[in-house]
Every structure is written in C-alpha cells, then in structure tokens.
Amino acid sequence: MSKLLVKPNGDHGLVTKVTPESAGWTYVGFELHRLKAGETVSAETGDRENCLVWISGSAKAKAGSEDFGSLGGRKSPFEGAPDALYVPMDSSWSVTAETDLELAVCSAPGGGDYKVKRIAPGTHPQITRGKGSNVRLVHNIMPEDDNSAHSLLVVEVITPNGNTSSYPSHKHDRDDLPNESFLEETYYHRLNPPQGFAFQRVYTDDRSLDEAMAVEDGDVALVPKGYHPCATIHGYDLYYLNVMAGPKRVWKFHNQKEHEWLLK
C-alpha cells in the first residue's frame, strides 16, 4: 500500500488521525471522529487553529466561551452544503452528537487575533468548475479570501461519477510567490454508493515521487508535494474534503505544462 494512503482504523471514535509528525511534514493535521448520539469529543487547540466540519449528522457545539447550539444535519456529505466551526489557537471546543455523527477536525499552526466563528451552510455559494468529464462541484469552507484564519484553507468537492478532478494536473509545492505557493494537503475521500472506489496519483516532474492509489470510502490521501489529480469510476460519485496549509495562506498553483492545452 502507498505510504501516502491512510486507511480508517475501525468505524467508531477517532478513526483517522494525521499529524505533522505521522505525515512527515510541518503544517497540516486531520482527524475524523465517528460518534453515536450522546457521545462527546473535545479538545484544546494549543498552538494550532482548528476547523471542525460536520461531514454528516447533527451535534451541539461549544467553542471558546460561546455555545453554538445544534449544528449540521445533512445525512451524508453528498447532500447539501457543509456546516463548520473555526476555533483559533489557545482555545477549546466540545461537540456532543445528537445523531450518528461524522466530524472532521482540520488543523494547522495558529497565529494572529482570530475569533471563534461558525461557517454556516451557504456562507460561500457552490461553484462549478471544469467542463465535460472534468466537471466538479465546489463548496468553499475557508477560502483564502475570507481573512478568517492564520493558516487553514478548507474546501469540499464533489466529483460526479466518471469524472476527473484536481485536473488538469497542478501542484503547489514551491514557496515562490507570486508564481506558486507551498501548501501541504490532505484529501479525505468518500464514495457514493460507499462500495465504490476512485483513483489518485501524486507525482513530481522528475518522478522522484510517483504514487498511484486506489482510494476507497473513508481513505485519506497525503499530498506532500507534486501533482495530485484524481478520477472516479462510472456509477460512483466522489466526495473529498481538502485541508491545505503552508508558510503563507495563499493558494497559488502551477499547472503541469503537458496538460495545459486542456484549459484552452
């Protein structure tokens, strides 16, 4: 199995955990919690900022000194816009499930004077990108132009069955603004129906890194550098939650020259 593929560990509690240490990088962390109604998960943010994303289900949430009441409610990540909660560094949060709950915890180094903030469904309108068999539907959660975080960039994407995504191949692995930004990235994948699979390739121009992965429901793919397109197969829609972070909160990517003709 590829060293860039992280499989879920069971189906209850903390089923996925990616830290900078486990990934061998500096910035991005990711967790996926699956809870039953009445169960609680909580954490101190320390020197990192968090973005909690309700993948499915509803839960009551508190963060810092604020009580946000019941958030979430969609039955799956393929049904409607996400609910999310930003929690800055040196704070805390607590989430108590009201139904079966899937909660993602995205993290990156904190800084600045940012405040706890709910990012309600529809805060950022859905965007359609691409054309033909490269169409995908995008829900920004924490885009670079919202000025609401120090490091984190978070987005959901749904790729209809048989389509490609994160394509034409692009990368963001050089700290060379304004041409390109350095951003580590995780992909949390889901399939609909869940027995499906998709493919993701992570590779560099010199092929010193070249990993091709079959991703299944609940898998996480790590993108430390290089291009990272993915494709789903006929009959199965692909969802992924992207978490990105680097030395600057800017998403500036470089397209692979061989495939730029597809953008014309």
UniProtKB/TrEMBL annotation:
PANTHER family: 5-DEOXY-GLUCURONATE ISOMERASE. It is an enzyme of class 5 (isomerase). GO terms for molecular function: 5-deoxy-D-glucuronate isomerase activity. Keywords: Isomerase. Pfam families: KduI (PF04962). It comes from Rhizobium aquaticum. This is 5-deoxy-glucuronate isomerase. It comes from the Bacteria. Its EC number is 5.3.1.30. The lineage of its organism: Bacteria, Pseudomonadati, Pseudomonadota, Alphaproteobacteria, Hyphomicrobiales. The keyword Glycosyltransferase does not apply. SUPFAM superfamilies: RmlC-like cupins.
